[in-house]
Amino acid sequence: MRRKTVLTSEDVHKMVAACKAAGAAIKREPTIAIVDEAGHLLYMERPDRNPVFTVEVATMKAKTAALRGVPSSAFATRVKAKPGFLMFPNFLGVEGGIPIMFESESIGGVGVSGISYDDEPVAQAGVDAFGK
After folding, report:
1. How far is CA 78 from CA 11, 68, 75, in A?
2. Cα gap 17→51, rounded to integer Å
3. Confidence of residue 131 (pLDDT cuts 50, 70, 90)
């Protein structure tokens, strides 16, 4: 029988706190989504001033990273090389989604939206907190 590591509520809240701290350090408030290994939402938060569409964007970034096991930005690179990959449902090739890896397996993803080019480093801060 195979045993599988899963994210706990404590893990999720630690990553959220790290994303918020990284956002605060640059005076930005990110929309944060955290998903499990199947891309199912575990946590979502949208600051009052962020547009409503950032909820879906952050979730799709997290899902893309979780399901592929690589940052969502890697999917963007893949699409540039082979545009047919745009036909894959439920993937978003935009910076800001980072997989949560444990023992070389994806166990989830963090997606950040609403803070432009700072999305990916803030998501990475969340994932980095998981490993500590």
Report:
1. 30, 12, 5
2. 21
3. confident
Percent of the chain with pLDDT strictly greater than 70:
100
Phi/psi of residue 99, nearest 5 degrees: -75, 150
Which residue, 113, 104, 114, is CA-closest to 64?
Answer: 113
pTM of structure: 0.94
Q: How far apart are CA 93 and CA 75, in angstroms?
A: 5
Calculate ∠ Cα 91-3-33, nearest 5°.
Answer: 30
Contact yes or no for 123/111 (Cβ under 8 A): yes
What is the rounded radius of gyration, in angstroms, for the C-alpha atoms of the chain?
A: 14
Q: Which one, of 41, 18, 29, 45, lies nearest residue 132 by Cα?
A: 18
Give kind and range of the element (H or E) at residue 56: helix 53-68
